[in-house]
Amino acid sequence: MAKAATANAAGVAGVTDLVLRQLGASDPVLKRLIARVGPFQLRHDPKRSPFQSLVRAVANQQLNGKAADTILGRFTALFPGRRFPKPGDLAEVTDEQMRACGFSRAKIAAIRDIGAKALDGTIPTSRQIARLGDEEIIERLTEVRGVGRWTVEMLLMFQLGRQDVLPADDFGVRNGFRIVFALAEMPKPKAVLEHGERWKPYRSVASWYLWRAVDLAKESKTAKA
Questions:
Q1: How far is residue 207's CA from residue 194's CA, in Å, rounded to a whole number?
Q2: Catalytic residue among 27, 134, 164, 170
Q3: Around Cβ 93, how many Cβ atoms within 10 Å?
Q4: CATH assignment of 2-44+164-224?
Q5: Does the active-site annotation cover 170?
Q6: In the chain, which residues fall in CATH 1.10.340.30?
Q7: Which CATH class name applies to 50-158?
Q8: DSSP notation for the chain
Q9: Where does residue 210 rank: exposed (0-12), middle (13-18), buried (19+ CB within 10 A)?
Q10: How far is CA 31 from CA 23, 28, 198, 205, 224, in A?
Q11: Mind listing the pLDDT tens digit for each residue in 162-188?
Q12: What is the tens place of the pLDDT at every residue in 36-83?
């Protein structure tokens, strides 16, 4: 556990040109993509607690960003004097108040469970989570209602800045893999994971470049049109 956490200590902010050269040396196809895209620019936000990140993730499920932000704005307004509520604060509001913010009953149940599991220690604090390895974090957080592996992988990358995460179920990652490797069909997550073994311990970096491959393809299509 300590070894895993130590390996991620520098986070994505510690990705240097040397890291990109090492990653490129492991995979010539990815090396060409890195050259096309340019410097690695994924930035993480360590200020949010795991509780806050998970509540926000649930709010964003099946919604566009603007709609989710509106609902979250109404939600935080239920707690005057707080930039964001603490787990124990959820007891102060009713389900009806949360429904009025725009949350579905399923999302309210998920948020209630996030609060309960933050209070009982299943969801670690910001300080605790920094000492845990990726798989332990995934195992603990996927016990929460409405939280799947993909949600936790996004937390690992964008909140904790972990370097070695490959969200193989992510459509964008799979689509980027299809584009970069000129595949006729969308690859299965298992195929992405198997190929991604060569990208360790920088699979988050490779994932970011696969997302950028999708962006490049869209830009190319728009330019041709």
A1: 14
A2: 170
A3: 16
A4: 1.10.1670.40
A5: yes
A6: 50-158
A7: mainly alpha
A8: -HHHHHHTTT-GGG--HHHHHHHHHH-HHHHHHHHHH-S------TTS-HHHHHHHHHHHTTS-HHHHHHHHHHHHHTSTT-SS--GGGGGGS-HHHHHHHT--HHHHHHHHHHHHHHHTTSSPPHHHHTTS-HHHHHHHHTTSTT--HHHHHHHHHHTS--S----TT-HHHHHHHHHHTT-SSPPPHHHHHHHHGGGTT-HHHHHHHHHHHHHHHHHHHHHH-
A9: buried
A10: 7, 5, 13, 12, 25
A11: 999 999 999 999 999 999 999 999 999
A12: 999 998 888 888 899 999 999 999 888 877 899 999 999 999 999 999
Q: Taking CA 3 as the corner, what is the angle to CA 121 and CA 44, rounded to the nearest 5 degrees?
A: 65
Q: How far apart are the first and last CA of the chain?
A: 51
Burial class (CB in 10 A: 0-12, 13-18, 19+), 163: buried
Asked if residue 46 has a cis previous peptide bond (ω within 30° of 0), the answer is no
pLDDT in the model for residue 7 = 42
